[in-house]
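Reading a protein record of the kind used here takes only a little practice. The record below shows the convention in full.

——
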Amino acid sequence: MRNGNYKALWRALLKLKDRVYAGNFTDEVILPGEIKIRTRKTGSHYFLKDHEIERGPLSLDRDTERFLDLYLPFCFVHLQSDLRKYAWSTAHFAQTLDGKIATHVGHSQWIGNRENLVHAHRMRAISDAVIIGAGTLERDKPQLTVRHVPGKTPARVVIGSGDYDFSCMFDDEAPIYHISTQAPNDKRIKQIDIPTEDFDDIDCKMILVRLYEMGIKTVYIEGGSYTSSKFLEEKFLDRVQLHIAPLIVGSGISNFTLPLKDHLDQSIQFSHYEYYHMGSEIMFQGEVKH
């Protein structure tokens, strides 16, 4: 996917998302290249029906088609959130061939390539919030901005009860939320207090419901392994993105850590999935079947 060729199309998708959020989605929206998005099935290449993006017969070059296949649905997934009253969630990892997202000491730069980095920033820009666990905050000290693409930095949400250093995020004015049992020491950090007897066993649906009530309808989970695995295990992860790098670590931190399964039919399955080129590497994207 050639990132430089799609700046205008990317900006148009962000504007489309804003229009849909504002309730201004009319029968037809025309994107660069005369690509038409309609609310009903027509001769256009893409149309919206029952809150799902589908294809029509209009011919596009392969790269443009794949670009839209990957990002266009995220302009509309909040409609699902409105139906069920909790936020839509997507998790993303850059991993090795053997499913490791870092070495045993937590080193992970750079498993993904430049294209994966740009993709991650696009996903932040098209989401209402990005979620990480406190372990990822302490280990990686991420800014969680969209500095590599046009767009607005989303709200940053950190899950973990304790006193942590958020200074890596202070260069951007986007909101910072801490899901914790104790109030933060810095006024730039806003606490989300979700009642629980055991914070390590906090209810993922309760988090998504609370965020939805705050106006956050789509979330992008960037780690770590524990946080993403918990959302997946509790069946509150809608979509999984796995960038696959040509490396074998052999030992290290796994992407997902789930309870033991005796049979393959107990495994996580996907109702729909595809593979996308990310430069010389690939990314798996699948919608989780619950």
User: Anything to note?
Assistant: Residues 40-45 have pLDDT under 50 and may be disordered.
